[in-house]
Amino acid sequence: MNEEIWLTIGSEFSDLPDLSTITRITVRLMIAALLGGILGYERERKKRSAGIRTHMLVAVGAALFVIGPLQSGMPIEDMSRVLQGVVQGIGFLGAGAIMVRAKQREVEGLTTAASIWATAAIGVIAGLGLEATAILSAGIVLIILGVIPVIMPKTFEADPPPAGQSDDR
């Protein structure tokens, strides 16, 4: 009976059958976590609502949603349904980062929501084993988040108030 228990336990952990598979999964998850953390650091440094931990969790979670089906033998053709679910779910998470301030007529958090969405995509790419593409993508997202605001600062003001109303900003 003890032998049967140990055989069952061993078969439950058979998704990581050898050192090569363990290394592959570890690298994919660590790349996703690292890249998510870098993107989250940029958001946290700017005191935005979603920071390092959120971005790391999004990237690792997205990678897991790809790694799991791949490990279980799901055909790559069927992966589109998994990816659709990830994209939709991340959309809801991103929506939580968006705030509308009616009095000031401002919308806040769109860039953070977009960075969460991009981080999920980078996590998916890392989970698929396309680490170089994930690193390149994270670099491009960092340029968008960090460099673009410096070279193209906001030069426009919010829409003026409707005629007959004062602007008490």
From TrEMBL:
One GO CC term on file: plasma membrane
Entry keyword Cell membrane: yes
Span of domain MgtC/SapB/SrpB/YhiD N-terminal: 29-149
UniProt keyword terms in alphabetical order: Cell inner membrane, Cell membrane, Membrane, Transmembrane, Transmembrane helix
Keyword Flavoprotein appears in the UniProt entry: no
Transmembrane segments: 21-40, 52-70, 82-100, 107-128, 134-152
Major location category of this protein: membrane
Location in the cell: Cell inner membrane; Cell membrane
Name by which UniProt lists this protein: Protein MgtC
Record organism: Paracoccus tibetensis
Lineage, uppermost ranks: Bacteria, Pseudomonadati, Pseudomonadota, Alphaproteobacteria, Rhodobacterales
